[in-house]
Design a protein that fits this description.
With about 400 residues, the chain is α/β, with parallel strands linked by helices. The protein has twelve helices and 13 strands. Strands 1-9-8-5-4-2-3 form a seven-stranded mixed beta sheet, with helices on both faces. The protein has a three-stranded antiparallel beta sheet with strand order 7-6-10, with no helix packed on it. It has a three-stranded antiparallel beta sheet with strand order 11-13-12, with helices on one face. The radius of gyration is 22 Å and the shape is globular. The structure holds pyridoxal-5'-phosphate.
Length: about 400
């Protein structure tokens, strides 16, 4: 089929680190002072500066940089007071590090169903939040889909549910003008290569709670050097905690912080660039027969660094033919319906370490037909056009 269009770009290729980040990183490499606490008296290290700047960006009092978003979530759960055996509510559509953080905190997971626009089922949440032993809630804004946060806060407040947000895909996003990650007691972000800022690996935790951040800083492995943190509460807060909280050693280093600081300055511009590509793709894909892009709430100001769509009413055979056909023409789609966990997709049925998990009919039905595509900023608007043409061509031949 020589007439078939071919897409040649790499779906995992991000843009290079900006010059400012590279220059500062080289200075740090030449100094040998990579460790965040390896600073001169009174000097603020890059990690501390990043924390100040990210706290300011988020409009939050405190920030801790750490090894990953997974570790930020784990530290947030522990620091908020989750005890072994406690139950943590969590939407069933999320990525493996989220249940991993819950398991790492020794907690049990209570899965909450999702609805057709891929966000959490608010009715199921309200019902499960009403249980007397429901105290903790990890809300994962999976693939950047933000649910109605007004309703979320109503449900949390009515039931005394403590909210922690997983914002790995919503860094830079807002709900009704308020930053994603600023609703709960803590917000957790990723700076892993495929997220909105790239330091290879890395995580950021923000909060206004002095006790929570003091615990998180000590947990992260501060060796009693928490004075060198500058997005922190008064030193007195640490005094009563310092021998009560263990060191889990999951800090960020100055090198990665140096890569991130200039990226933070450009974050909002980058988000807009993602959204231009997202909107072009959404518009093109939603016109294709057999493909559904669920509408998004006008209050949701998302960051379209990836796009999801559903092949509603298509059977597994046709879905396989569709995915295979797209891949043959260079368009790499992921599918959440796989029986076995593959790459960066994750279905809750593969989190067997929790023991038997309930069958959530809607989550199963929705994931079974959900496709997912990365939108790296190395793609141009013309690239998006070509991707739409290819998907349309394949859809015409294999979808009913
Ligand atoms: C990537 C991701 C995480 C974890 O981020 P890491 O920094 O890799 O630990 C958590 N939640 C979601 C939804 C993610 O996509």
């Amino acid at each position: 089929m020589s007439s078939n269009k071919q897409f040649k770009k790499d779906f995992t290729l991000q843009e290079p680190i900006c010059d400012g980040g590279i220059e500062r990183a080289l200075e740090i490499l030449k100094s040998g002072k990579l460790h965040r606490y390896n600073v001169n008296p009174g000097e603020k290290g890059e990690a501390a500066l990043l924390e100040e700047e990210f706290a300011a960006y988020m409009g939050k009092k405190y920030c801790l940089s750490c090894a990953s978003c997974g570790s930020a979530m784990y530290l947030a759960l522990k620091s908020a007071g989750v005890n072994p055996g406690d139950k943590v509510l969590c939407n069933a559509y999320t990525l493996a590090p989220v249940p991993g953080a819950i398991e790492n905190a020794g907690a049990a997971i209570e899965l909450v169903d999702i609805v057709d626009d891929y966000t959490i089922d608010l009715e199921d949440l309200a019902a499960k939040a009403a249980a007397p032993d429901a105290k903790w809630f990890m809300l994962s804004h999976m693939r950047g889909h933000i649910t109605n946060m007004d309703r979320i806060m109503e449900i949390c407040n009515a039931n005394g549910l403590v909210l922690i947000e997983d914002c790995a895909h919503t860094m830079g996003a807002t709900w009704d003008q308020k930053k994603s990650g600023s609703f709960g007691i803590a917000g957790c972000f990723s700076t892993q290569t495929y997220k909105h800022m790239n330091s290879g690996e890395g995580g950021l935790l923000v909060t206004d709670d002095p006790d929570l951040i003091a615990r998180a800083i000590i947990y992260s492995g501060s060796y009693m050097l928490y004075e060198r943190h500058t997005a922190r509460p008064d030193m007195a807060v640490f005094e009563s905690l310092k021998t009560q909280v263990p060191n889990y050693s999951c800090r960020m280093d100055n090198l990665r912080a140096a890569l991130l600081r200039p990226q933070l300055k450009d974050l909002d511009i980058q988000c807009e660039r993602w959204n231009k590509r997202y909107r072009a793709l959404e518009k093109g894909l939603s016109h294709i027969e057999g493909i559904t892009c669920p509408p998004r709430d006008p209050k949701e100001n998302y960051v379209g660094s990836s796009i999801q769509f559903s092949l509603v009413n298509q059977n597994e055979e046709r879905i396989h033919a569709f995915l295979g056909g797209c891949l043959e023409q260079g368009v790499e789609l992921k599918w959440f319906g796989n029986k076995e966990p593959v790459g960066f997709t994750s279905a809750y049925s593969s989190w067997k370490y929790f023991g038997e998990l309930p069958y959530l009919a809607n989550t199963q039905r929705i994931l079974a037909v959900m496709c997912d595509m990365r939108i790296p900023l190395t793609f141009t608007l013309d690239d998006c056009k070509l991707i739409i043409e290819i998907i349309e061509q394949v859809a015409k031949t294999v979808l009913k």
